[in-house]
Amino acid sequence: MLRTRKIRWLSGTMVLLAILTLLLPQALLPQAAAAQAQTSGIDAVLVADVSNSMNTSDRDKISNEAMKMFIDMLPVQGDKVGIVAYTDQVEREKAMLEIQSDADKSSLKDFIDQLGRGPYTDVSVGVAEAVNILNHGADPSHSPMIVLLADGNNDFNKTKGRTQAQSDADLEKSVKEAQDQGIPVYTIGLNADGKLNKDALADLAKQTGGKSFITDTPDDLPQILSEIFADHAKLNVVKLPSVTGNGSYQEVTVNVPNDSVLEANISIMSSKPVEVQLTDPSGQAVDLNSDAAKLSTSKSYSLVKLLKPQEGDWKLRVKGAPKDSIDINLLFNYDLQLVVDPIKTKSYTKGDKVDLAAKLENGGQPLQDNDLYTDMKATLVVKDVDTGKSEEQPLENTGSGFAGTFEVPDNHNYELIIRAEEDSFYRESAPITINASGAAGSGSQPTTSGGEQDKSFPWLPVILGVIALIVVGVGAWFLMGWLKRKNRGFVGQMVVEIRDENTGDKSYPQYKKLVSFRGRFHLHQLLQLDPELKETEKYVFTPSNGDRIIVRNTAGGTLEKSGRAVDASSGVELKNGDRLSIPLQQADKTILIEYLV
Asked: Do the Cβ atoms of 442 and 344 come closer than 8 Å?
């Protein structure tokens, strides 16, 4: 009886899911995806060429300063960063680290300062490893990106027989992966010696939807990095007045236009040290190491980050050396999305009119501060999918949103995007597809003659429709189960030690929290993607019931659990307190793991 009820419940649920799947307004789906994309964090991999050629093309180690400044510009919590340093092989790398504190940022910057140089260069190696890190360590809800700092030139080790054609093929493969996964590659070409291969870097950025920049001085970093952030997060860079140092404090006004600003990044670039003071709109001095603001400094830049700043005029006071030029850039970070009301139908014909309305949302709710709309302009960007031509038309600012009408000019397919913009940011809606390729127009219904009304009820289409609903329902049921398993989280932590079998020495215990992983992870990720321990990629961990974990050796083979050899090819279950010993044949090391909940 219980089983019968369960079957009936499952059947009813599947049919309901199928109906919901078919009836859900399709116009809502891309908008939801856009909202997720615009509010998501960033998963970035910073890739640096550390070959000996950089001693001339990057003699001032601009790449190090750029990576550190990038990290400082990130929000104080939530984003993830990985680092790859390459020559013709991966020299050093750091797996995706979720930033939770200032200490995490300091750890990343310390890692950058420790990077050395090595012989030979192969750009494809760095890009491939960056894509690999994002594949294994990125958060699906975050927006991925790669920032490549290089001169774009290759220098192969002739003893290895590596050719340019092989490198190009590997790079093409990585570019295809980046395109498929929506990973833009931003390139910063380092050109101190004038030998930059700018075309190669520009082409790489263009193919992946990123942008390419060139510099031979740290003075350009604030502008370059601000533009990278702006492009990726749909922001505009606000240029503040430059200052010529005179040995005294000079005041610059920083206007926070509204209370929807999450963060304001004020980057200050000067060839000599600069002293900084800050007061809020009420005139109170602000501690630059507090919950309200943070100051980060390096040998070539200073960065002031305002956290959830009060609306109004802040006063930045800078004191530089006499006659020293001080450049200041401002970049806001908003939690805003541009959402378009669903359109009634997706099938139109020439001459039909489509009414459009869009509004800003903050955290999924309509924006309460309508003053933000005051200086905003909105544009409808129309792309004729059949001809590839695009045109724009202005939309009305209603004071609490944007409105307008699109008249279908021809029986073609169109893609509509609404763009809203003001001085400090812009937002784009998800694309809306208009099908006007000759199908019936909006609201049109097929007409019938008297003879057609006498025909028998069309049972066959109804039966086929029911079968289709059931099939879709079953598929939806299995899809939901698969998504649930894929996104299932982990609990607890693993204590990891590495024993050298040649000397018997053991590393200090490392405590690895598992809460950041979803669905699955492999042991190589837990070991910071150390190239020497690459064979640990075949050990895959997945969550199980009761806070337990299943570990499998995907290549087949045994490992030791609590001192006994067990077959890991079909999975070994770990519970609180269980220990594993995993011998590595290639590295002559053993990985020792204790699982703690």
From this structure: yes
